[in-house]
Design a protein that fits this description.
The protein is of the alpha/beta class. The protein is built from ten helices and eleven strands. It has two domains: 124 residues, Rossmann fold; 125 residues, Rossmann fold, CATH 3.40.50. The termini are close together. It is an enzyme of class 4 (lyase).
Length: 268
């Protein structure tokens, strides 16, 4: 993809709805490109600390052949648990990250991590040859309390014995009305970044209380599946970056805003 003209972001209003601290890091990248940015998280997370079964799973992690982290946040919590209970990382495990960002967290800890060859989705991860045939092999999926069923169901169909390890909870933030009005109606964003279906749903629900119509904003979403979800909710324009790296998100938005025709549709 040709380098997009970042001047197309100059003074454009960008609202970032992903959780902190990732939101602040992405906001800085947009500000460096000249955009005006507000951060309004539409999803919050907290580690689960009151479930004794987590410690049991971590202590038994050497019994698994494959360990999959579904997000950078899940990978970070997993690394913290490993650092506490495994002074020497267990051998013989194949480690996976759903996407380059997740894999990078595990790799930084010294784990030889596999990731999708192309893409950052569960579907892309499932295309790896190591996960094609699993004859009663034990697979641990590290994620939040709720998540898509695609990974566990598909791996089970392929013969794996799958165990889920929820390490965190997700919930909608409790923004007061003044905060919502200021960030949505007052700021009147041209671009909104929502990098999960849950984030998008929370934004749509809470924005209904502001009287602001988001349908003409450029909605940045992670995958086509969420773009379809946005279109069904009345959003006219969506943008699917090539990856979820901050630089890729900024570049995708700049490319879209630089187009002479910014009619509804996706950009990749």
């Amino acid at each position: 993809m040709a380098t997009p003209p970042l001047e197309s972001l100059e003074r454009r209003r960008v609202l970032i709805c992903r959780p902190r601290p990732e939101a602040e890091r992405l906001a800085e990248a947009f500000r460096n490109a000249g955009a005006e940015v507000r951060v309004l998280p539409m999803l919050e997370r907290e580690p689960i600390t009151d479930d004794p079964s987590i410690r049991t799973r971590i202590l038994d992690i050497d019994q698994f052949s494959h360990v999959i982290a579904v997000s950078p946040y899940a990978a970070g919590l997993l690394v913290d648990w490993l650092d506490t209970w495994w002074p020497q990382t267990p051998s013989g495990i194949l480690w996976y990250g759903v996407g380059a960002g997740t894999a990078a967290v595990l790799s930084a800890y010294g784990l030889n991590t596999r990731q999708p060859i192309d893409g950052h989705t569960s579907e892309a991860l499932l295309a790896l040859p190591e996960l094609a045939q699993l004859n009663h092999e034990k697979v641990l999926i590290v994620r939040g309390e709720q998540g898509r069923d695609l990974l566990p169901e598909t791996l089970t169909d392929r013969g794996a014995n799958v165990t889920l390890l929820p390490l965190y909870r997700r919930f909608a933030p409790d923004h007061d009305q003044a905060t919502l009005e200021g960030a949505i109606s007052g700021f009147d964003p041209e671009v909104v970044v929502t990098l999960s279906g849950e984030t998008l749903n929370n934004l749509i629900s809470l924005s209904n209380n502001t009287g602001h119509n988001l349908e003409h904003c450029l909605m940045v979403v992670p995958v086509e599946r969420i773009a379809d979800q946005a279109h069904k909710a009345g959003i006219k324009r969506t943008c699917v970056p090539e990856s979820l790296a901050d630089s890729a998100i900024v570049a995708a938005v700049a490319q879209q805003l630089a187009r002479p025709d910014v009619s509804s549709g996706n950009t990749k």
